[in-house]
């Protein structure tokens, strides 16, 4: 046995000598300073940011993922991680493979960005480290630029407070087997839940507020121990955005409530745990997260960052501040980037993946009072410039995708929401929370809807949104979880509460 | 795009399979107990307020499975917060009494699948041992404080905390199974609390991940 083992290892070494770029078990064995580790793939695998020739492959080595030091049980040593990506789930046809080294400086996270993949293709990937093999992930590359694409199925979710429910919504997403998953913010929360004990189904292993890199890492790591979340990450590439709670509640471009040093800690842990590109590797207290993805001639995704560059929120619903055109929720550079992109129309649909409520919501119907200063309501100048921007530039079919508010909503978009006959210029689909619990409370009353006739739907239940886009229409199924506080999947149902359609070339939501 | 030859891939997988089949290699260290001459106390957990579970003679050679940070102790070899876990002795000894080469960290951090223990903070009113051989917690109540000793623990897949209680009073112990399979991990901390299905945990230890053998 020992003889056979040695011979095989030598064979492996010979193989690598003939293909210099490829790794080998021999080279892995030379990492003598790296102590043996237990199965380090406790956080699963993920992929994201698909391009026509490339997709990010992610994992993090963490055999003890909840350790309060944030190191995941990894010794302070360099580990080689082998990866391979194949066109079949049995890995009979491996397209590419390689090795990357990872260290404690990056919490032993791994980001691989293979290039030269085929466009519009399904792939499978896995990792190996320390003699252990990871679970297999499925991913896709984007179709070639301009390629005729007949259908895209994607899901989107947001707000997954660890303590406030079970991740049945992700079980649903995994079963949907979508082409893409969008996450629109609040992947972690900086503090433990304030809900009553009966509404907290599990606990944080390290419950202290995320004020150190160790706690941010432990918090992210604990989320990725969830089996349903792992399944959703493993089923499709994700496009990830953050909102406020990945750093601290209601942070903005200023030094309060998040100081530059706290932003730096949060961004580092965020990068370490997300399948995002090296272009999003943070530089101190800045991180480049707004970006675009094109799905052939069918869809384009503008993933926005409405947190990092925003003006300080208005206080006391101060209308003169909230309507001040000098203020911004995107920052000038991102706004110019977005408006510039609106000048080209490579695809039928333009989806703006972003964090906070875009459409106006105004309870009293009066332009002289204001509400919701953390949403686009609080940055009316930005909302007007961007809405007018897509109208003026002839964006064919704009759809805003939103998270944050812990309820399903659907709304049409106008340039003047107080004029109920103002033309509809787009639509917004708002996903409820995966788990985060807003408490009880039904939809607004008829008076409210009469003052906000562009708003078509509200549902206070946990879930996600499943979108099927074709050249003819975008269909949105608002999926609800019967009870996110019940752990047993046999006692929980996922169902579509309502579906809306938007027809290409025509404005406005149609209830199906 | 490079394709890895099929034949070599097969070899790669075969080697992997062999590595997976093998047990985790042992990487314990050895040290020599050095006192003024008297025997050294062995503690259940890495603090001087923990239960004395035995003693070890000066000059004895011990096998250290792992090391962990605990309460600071001053001994013949200096002052250190490092404690050595010696399964053959059934507990921990302060590294201030153990001569090793090099002098400090010579073994992995604790949580290596051969057992571990922690105390609640303060007087170690709650003390618990994780027994790796079968994945059980032995939970000790060591203070007549009107509180239970409790282990809060988390498992693979996103479950936790679960609780291993000892509500039998000062001086008692309980044996609680976790059901974690061989090779599985458990992250736990030892606390005190009033018994409840949703307890308010107090005086929790740092927390440690260990494995079932």
Automatic annotation (TrEMBL), chain A:
PROSITE patterns: TAT (PS51318). Keywords: Signal. Pfam families: PhoD, PhoD_N. Residues 1-28 form the signal peptide. InterPro entries: Metallo-depent_PP-like, PhoD-like_MPP, PhoD-like_sf, PhoD_N, Phospholipid_Metab_Enz, TAT_signal. CDD domains: MPP_PhoD. It comes from Kibdelosporangium persicum. SUPFAM superfamilies: Metallo-dependent phosphatases. Residues 154-478 form the PhoD-like phosphatase metallophosphatase domain. This is Secreted alkaline phosphatase. Residues 43-141 form the Phospholipase D N-terminal domain. It comes from the Bacteria.
């Amino acid at each position: 046995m020992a003889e056979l083992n040695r011979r095989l290892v030598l064979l492996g070494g010979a193989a690598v000598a003939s293909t210099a770029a490829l790794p080998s078990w021999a080279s892995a064995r030379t990492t003598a300073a790296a102590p043996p580790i237990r199965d380090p793939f406790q956080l699963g695998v993920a992929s994201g940011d698909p391009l026509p020739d490339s997709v990010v492959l992610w994992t993090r080595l963490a055999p003890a993922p909840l350790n309060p030091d944030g190191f995941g049980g990894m010794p302070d040593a360099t580990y080689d991680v082998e990866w391979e990506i194949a066109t079949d789930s049995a890995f009979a046809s491996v397209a590419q493979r390689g090795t990357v080294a990872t260290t404690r400086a990056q919490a032993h996270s791994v980001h691989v960005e293979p290039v030269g993949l085929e466009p519009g293709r399904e792939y499978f990937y896995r990792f190996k480290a320390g003699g252990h093999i990871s679970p297999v992930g499925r991913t896709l590359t984007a179709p070639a630029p301009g390629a005729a694409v007949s259908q895209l199925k994607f899901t989107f979710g947001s707000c997954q407070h660890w303590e406030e429910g079970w991740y049945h919504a992700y079980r649903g997403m995994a079963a949907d087997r979508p082409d893409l998953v969008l996450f629109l913010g609040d992947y972690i929360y900086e503090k433990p839940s304030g809900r009553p004990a009966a509404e907290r189904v599990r606990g944080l292993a390290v419950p202290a507020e995320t004020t150190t890199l160790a706690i941010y890492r432990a918090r992210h790591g604990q989320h990725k121990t969830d089996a349903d979340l792992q399944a959703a990450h493993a089923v499709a590439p994700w496009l990830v955005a953050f909102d406020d709670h990945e750093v601290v509640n209601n942070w903005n471009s200023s030094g309060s409530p998040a100081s530059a040093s706290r932003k730096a800690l949060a961004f580092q842990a965020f990068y370490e745990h997300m399948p995002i590109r090296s272009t999003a590797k943070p530089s101190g207290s800045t991180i480049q997260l707004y970006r675009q993805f094109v799905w052939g001639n069918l869809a384009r995704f503008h993933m926005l960052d409405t947190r990092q560059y925003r003006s300080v929120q208005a206080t006391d619903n101060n209308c003169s501040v909230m309507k001040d055109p000098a203020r911004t929720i995107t920052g000038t550079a991102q706004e110019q980037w977005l408006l510039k992109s609106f000048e080209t129309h490579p695809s039928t649909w333009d989806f703006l993946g972003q964090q906070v409520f875009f459409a106006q919501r105004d309870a009293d119907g009066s332009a002289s009072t204001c509400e919701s200063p953390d949403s686009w309501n609080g940055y009316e100048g930005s909302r007007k410039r961007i809405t007018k921007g897509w109208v003026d530039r002839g964006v064919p079919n704009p759809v805003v995708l939103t998270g944050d508010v812990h309820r399903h909503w659907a709304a049409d978009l106008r340039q003047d929401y107080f004029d109920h006959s103002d033309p509809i210029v787009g639509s917004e689909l708002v996903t409820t929370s995966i788990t985060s619990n807003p408490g009880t409370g039904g939809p607004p009353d008829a008076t409210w809807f009469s003052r906000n006739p562009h708003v078509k739907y509200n549902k206070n239940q946990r879930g996600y949104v499943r979108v099927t886009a074709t050249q003819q229409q975008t269909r949105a199924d608002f999926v609800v979880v019967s009870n996110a506080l019940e752990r047993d999947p046999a006692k929980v149902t996922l169902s579509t509460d309502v579906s809306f359609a938007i027809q290409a070339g025509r404005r406005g939501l149609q209830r199906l | 795009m490079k394709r890895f030859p099929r034949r070599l891939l097969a070899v790669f997988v075969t080697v992997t399979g062999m590595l997976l089949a093998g047990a985790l290699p042992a990487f314990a260290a050895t040290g020599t107990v050095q006192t003024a001459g008297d025997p050294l106390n062995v503690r259940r957990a890495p603090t001087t307020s923990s239960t004395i579970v035995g003693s070890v003679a000066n000059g004895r050679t011990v096998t250290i499975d792992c090391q962990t940070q605990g309460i600071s102790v001053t001994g013949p070899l200096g002052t250190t917060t490092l404690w050595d876990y010696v399964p053959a002795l059934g507990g921990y000894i302060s590294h201030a009494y153990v001569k090793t080469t090099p002098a400090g960290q010579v073994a992995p951090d604790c949580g290596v699948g051969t057992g571990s223990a922690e105390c609640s903070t303060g007087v170690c009113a709650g003390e618990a041992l994780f027994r790796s051989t079968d994945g059980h917690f032995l939970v000790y109540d060591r203070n007549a404080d009107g509180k239970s000793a409790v282990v809060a623990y988390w498992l693979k897949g996103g479950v936790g905390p679960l609780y291993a209680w000892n509500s039998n009073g000062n001086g008692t112990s309980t044996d609680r199974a976790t059901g974690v399979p061989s090779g599985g991990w458990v992250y736990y901390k030892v606390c005190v609390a009033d018994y409840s299905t949703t307890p308010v945990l107090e005086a929790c230890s740092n927390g440690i991940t260990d494995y079932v053998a």
